[in-house]
Design a protein that fits this description.
alpha+beta; five-stranded antiparallel beta sheet; 391 residues
Length: 391
């Protein structure tokens, strides 16, 4: 029951929804130079708002985009995408503070995932300006000619934490950052988003984390603990072996499923690469697969190659456990889940280590007791005692 309770505890922490922070109502926003707009929308992500007026006779969209960058040296962006619903192809207006302290708005044609460069965009723009408020928000103003009779536009908005040599650096990849796309309905005056795509991506990331956390983070270490310590109890022989194999095979199966979801996420997230996390994951999968082969290549205890098999089995097994723990922490960092998820996994590790320490002491006590018993019974010294670390 203990492993099951540990797994359920870990799962419960991972399944808790991340904290949400409601944006302030856009209706209370006021602007300098008596700027007024007919419509305002509180955008559903990144605590942003869009204020706009559309003049159909000239095809001009006058707008104010309001959002808070992660830092005072950060940037905010609002864009229209005439060819799709995502970042690629978007015609972006990006506001940030220059090295001299002055605010600037630049245009960027986002044609790929590589570093962007200032460039003309598909829409004619005028009256570009921005202000950095005392509340930490950037207010970006613009007039964009979208054409007469425009009704619905694909919009994208974003925030980033830094600018290098006048070029915005990459933004975070939190759920809000990835979900900040939607439709701007100029007729109804509303902004809508397709939350299903973002929710689906979040669910896949959570499933990936849960599967790998339970497999490499709980079941595989637990199987190693069983093999190292439970075997010392004579009453558990040969049950400990089947418990060990069952635990490792179950952990491997769940881990392979988690690894596969990670590979699939990588394919779906073009331009978003976590090289170290991915490389460690592949290494874990390869080493764990070697361990499966070890089960079929296991020689008898008295075989001359048994010592070499033991070295191979132990070294690969402990490598999987260490790499698994490292990659779980890297995954939690990538997911940006918050301290409580990290604390939950640290608690799981502490419980497993605590169990191992107690069993280590108990194992030595049992072995020393057996040794003393053998020495009393067989004074000729020919008896052999099994050490606690044998296989």
């Amino acid at each position: 029951m203990a492993p099951l309770l540990l797994s359920l505890t870990f799962l419960s922490f991972l399944l808790l929804p991340p904290p949400s922070f409601a944006a302030s109502s856009c209706a209370s926003e006021t602007f300098s130079k008596n700027r007024l707009y007919t419509t305002c929308n509180d955008l559903p992500h990144l605590s942003s708002s869009l204020h706009f007026s559309y003049d159909n006779s000239t095809g001009t969209l006058s707008l104010a985009f309001v959002s808070a960058p992660p830092s005072s040296s950060g940037w905010v962006a609002w864009a229209l995408n005439p060819t799709g619903s995502g970042m690629i192809g978007s015609q972006a207006l990006i506001a940030f503070k220059q090295s001299n302290g002055a605010m600037v708005v630049k245009t960027f044609n986002v044609s790929g995932y590589e570093a962007i460069q200032e460039s003309p965009i598909a829409y004619k723009t005028t009256d570009l300006s921005a202000e950095f408020g005392s509340d930490g928000k950037i207010r970006m103003f613009a007039k964009v000619v979208v054409g007469q009779g425009a009704s619905s536009l694909n919009q994208v908005w974003q925030v980033g934490g830094s600018v290098t040599n006048g070029v915005p650096d990459k933004h975070d990849f939190k759920s809000d950052n990835l979900a900040s796309v939607g439709k701007l309905d100029l007729v109804k005056g509303v902004s809508t988003t397709d939350s299903s795509a973002a929710t689906s991506s979040d669910n896949k990331r959570n499933v990936h984390g849960i599967l790998n956390g339970v497999s490499w983070g709980i079941l595989i270490p637990l199987g190693a603990i069983i093999a190292r310590y439970v075997k010392v109890f004579e009453v558990a022989d040969p049950a400990w072996f089947y418990m060990h194999v069952s635990c490792q095979l179950t952990g491997y199966a769940i881990g392979v499923a988690g690894w596969a979801t990670g590979i699939n996420l990588g394919k779906e997230s073009k331009g978003i690469t976590y090289t170290t996390h991915r490389s460690i994951g592949i290494a874990i999968f390869a080493l764990a697969t070697l361990q499966i082969f070890a089960l079929f290549l296991r020689p008898n205890k008295d075989h001359k190659f048994r010592l070499f098999w033991n070295v191979y089995h132990h070294s690969v097994g402990y490598s999987v456990i260490v790499l698994g723990a490292i990659n779980i922490f890297r995954g939690l960092t990538i997911l940006q889940t918050g301290d409580k998820w990290r604390t939950a996994y640290i608690a799981v590790i502490c419980v497993l280590v605590g169990i191992a320490v107690v069993l280590e002491a108990l194992t030595w006590l049992i072995v020393l007791k057996r040794r003393r018993s053998v020495q009393k019974t067989y004074s000729n010294g020919h008896a052999s005692v099994q050490q606690p670390f044998g296989v």
